[in-house]
Amino acid sequence: MADVAERAGVSVSTVSRTLRGLSTVSPEVRARVEEAARELNFAVSRQAASLVTGRTGNVAVLVPALDAWFMGSALSSLAPLLRAAGMELNVYVIPDLAERTSFFERLPARRNADALLVFSFDLTDEETTRLDNLGMPVIYVSQHVDGRPSVYVDDVAGAHFGTRHLLNLGHRRIAFVQTIGASGFSFSSNERLLGYQQALTEANVPLDSDLVVATQVGDKRGTAEVLGKLLSLREPPTAIFAEQDEVAVAVIRTLRKTHIAVPERISVLGFDDQPLADWFDLSTVAQSPSDIGRQAGELALKLIADSGTDHGRHIVLPTIVIPRATTAPLPSPQDEQEVRDHP
Amino acid sequence: MADVAERAGVSVSTVSRTLRGLSTVSPEVRARVEEAARELNFAVSRQAASLVTGRTGNVAVLVPALDAWFMGSALSSLAPLLRAAGMELNVYVIPDLAERTSFFERLPARRNADALLVFSFDLTDEETTRLDNLGMPVIYVSQHVDGRPSVYVDDVAGAHFGTRHLLNLGHRRIAFVQTIGASGFSFSSNERLLGYQQALTEANVPLDSDLVVATQVGDKRGTAEVLGKLLSLREPPTAIFAEQDEVAVAVIRTLRKTHIAVPERISVLGFDDQPLADWFDLSTVAQSPSDIGRQAGELALKLIADSGTDHGRHIVLPTIVIPRATTAPLPSPQDEQEVRDHP
DNA sequence: CTGAAAGCGCTAACAA
DNA sequence: TTGTTAGCGCTTTCAG
Fold first, then answer.
1. pTM of the predicted model over 0.85
2. Among A19, A96, A316, B299, which is 20 to 30 Å from A202 by CA?
3. CATH superfamily of domain region A155-288+322-341
4. Distance in angstroms, CA of B44 to C1' of D9?
5. For residue B75, which residues of chain A lie inside 8 Å, CB to CB?
6. Among partner residues B47, B91, B253, which is closest to A91 by beta-carbon distance?
7. Tens of pLDDT, residues A124-150
8. Common-topology check for domains A55-153+290-317 and A155-288+322-341
9. Which residues of A touch B93 (CB under 8 A)?
10. What is the pLDDT of residue B335?
11. Residues A276, A246: contact at Cβ < 8 Å?
């Protein structure tokens, strides 16, 4: 910066002011400085600047993984937004317990970012407290933490709508497949189950715990087992609502392998609306991670700008049912007959 | 840090030395300092440290998007590696031309990272030159740039093997579907086409430019058109090799909608082996983005440690053919007959 | 093995 | 509108 100052024949302060776009610089001097900076290929050192301003110009995000649809989409919308605000994006990936422990012990983001976005973790109280003392705004994404700014989707309503879609198609025996996630990774599971139950109750359909099962993403055998349980009930389900698209698709594949037609025999509904859903023509309850990312980013910028305001504010985003080809009206008894005759 | 020093009854220098793990600190003093630091919940400011050391502790990555399988996987393996080395991960997402121009104009990574990993961009010479003057090691990932460190997959060999797999199954009319990417995003398209051509030539199968077509990812109509062209040739292909899994799956869906059995009638082979391939039981040529990410990360750390060495080194990773359910032997004439009789 | 002192490159009062 | 000066929190000589 001294070089630029010398070349432009001004003081470093003036260079600093110019480069920060302060209006207290005369146009001619500004021009001279800017040219000198360009000629010298000069860029301000954020490190040095942050040392005195106390702001780092970084926004940190804590994610369980990057190779997941949700994170990819959310960060893809978050990044340009931060960039537009002149902020850098710092990513902390916490794939396992060891990394997690180390993160919360050492808090590497401390003093290294102006805000932290925590994605999809089921945090312990201890961890939350630790983040409270981080000295920067912490925004919880895809999860709600009382009294802290959070951005998430209305899972209860989403599952409610989804279930109602199936009810409206005439289904009464509707199974719900929960996802057992990697430990500590939040799938909003309970909210979605709740929405499912609410919708059934509202429609005077009795809850049947036999119809609620759980499996893991990617566990083919487990999914097959769970499906076997459902299919061997005295009154098997005519529709299956999986709380994640990936599981819904696994269910469909297993059913079709067993020559059970979807949706003619059994309707299947997912939740998420990832690209996979479109590939499989899967009816699903859509959420928009890019909206979530955008909202979270905006909230972060707001909190950085005027800390103290708005803390504890929750932003709840909507979901919407996308009917595709895997949900269909409950076959009437004679249709059923027909299906039996010509399988 | 002064606080820690006071609490431990030592000088700031000693605290600094302790916290950096230098061995020139007596065990008892070290213990005292560490305890004081813990009690005060102290963490060194990277900003201040980097101001004097000149190293930022950041590794920057430049990616065209984050919501793509390749990036997600690569970064997921890169991140823990950097973390283990005490480095932070800084992500620059460049989704469009405007962002791209601005990035190369302002070079925000300048002075803000110790190395830059550039993913999957088809860079202009000008852009490459700009990066050369960034003052930090730049590693090119999923692309080769002469004289600069690069990490990529052997696309020629991959396509060669893939084509040979189809040839070995008896296919002679093999189509190749290229992907037209977003501009500036590199798909290694030409290398893959070359490998395809090499394999054919090696097997004495004449090249037929009618069998080489191009479409865009996600462009259903375009894919259908291109497929129509292939199917209406005088001698239509019996196998289709798409240079990306997503296109291969789109091809399969279109074929099946037209009641052309895959693989009985036409074999389809993809390239990448993303999860989608497994969902669709797609035979494909696998590459491993997580290996790529890992290698690129290690190379970056190496170049940061001793700059000057190894520059211009290329790391080429292998591919492997994964046969699944969408490639099958060329039906013999009588089989063909049979298929015609019972479609 | 430890401490004192001199900056690293910038910004933010304060003066002019 | 511009320049001078005093740090920001650390690391790194250089003494001891």
1. yes
2. A316
3. Response regulator (3.40.50.2300)
4. 8
5. 66-67, 91, 93
6. B91
7. 999 999 999 898 999 999 998 999 999
8. yes
9. 75-76, 79-80, 83, 89
10. 52
11. yes
